[in-house]
Sequence to fold (316 residues):
Amino acid sequence: MIEIPVYLFTGFLESGKTSFVQEALEGEDFNSGERTLLLLCEEGEEEYHPAKFFGTNVFIETIEDEEDLTPEHLEELQKKHDVERVIVEYNGMWSLDTIYANMPESWLAYQETMFADATTFMTYNQNMRQLVFDKLKSAELVVFNRFKRDGSMDKMEFHKIVRAANRKSQILYEYAKDDVEVDDIVDPLPFDIDADEFTVGDDAYAEWYRDINDEQDKYDGKIITVKGRSVIGGGLSDDEFVFGRHVMTCCVEDIQFAGLACKWKDAAKTLTHGGWVTITAKVFVEYADIYGEVGPVLYCLKVEEAEEANPEVAQF
Fold:
């Protein structure tokens, strides 16, 4: 099977997607003649000018409705133009899960970039937080166009919103054409990761949970004290339980339990399902059946009953 690379450009109307793709297709570095399917999922004020494209093998197709993003239809368009790659200008009001769930088997996401108009981004984030989070969560690059140098915009505010959704994306602030600044803000963890033993505060659980999953090896051998709920039963052995808390990443609708595998000799005898506990545990990165792969396993040295965490639902 021949893989078809997919370049996905997301963001809301007038965020700069069309201008960027137009310029990319005008350059021979990106467009040296590959047969390219350009899928347009929304209609903005900017229009494409194919006559300026460096390569002529660019075939533009429009997707009017989110329901038209089916594997059958997308594969039909691929075969219609016999393309080697796909560029998608995605509709900011559509869920990214739709395009990812319906890509033909041969399509492989190569790059995902989100564009945002810095002058309207905060309003979108306030009024349509779930949609904003949806576009940030998997973006490898986030570009804030029309950023201002006059002090009216605080890079840290933009940075925090991106980092709440995505720890790994690169962030760029574009002040004008060819005047771009790379975000170099360091995100210190709210606990001393360099110490052999440390405590994770109630308000730091979400960030700790995300970090230990993203960079599990740096926690191997560390001793951690942290508060959460115990989950027992469900096929777990007598010396196993799941330790975790409910985490809200974006909004109430996305609250979910974020837990880790734990070992404790008296788990079945002493713990209650859903009860609050404070554990002190040593982390080992190893295979666990509960994950079905290698992951962080907490070997408890001490487990004590505790009052519920404050806040009860952890947030970024």
User: Anything to note?
Assistant: The first strand starts at residue 4 and ends at 10.
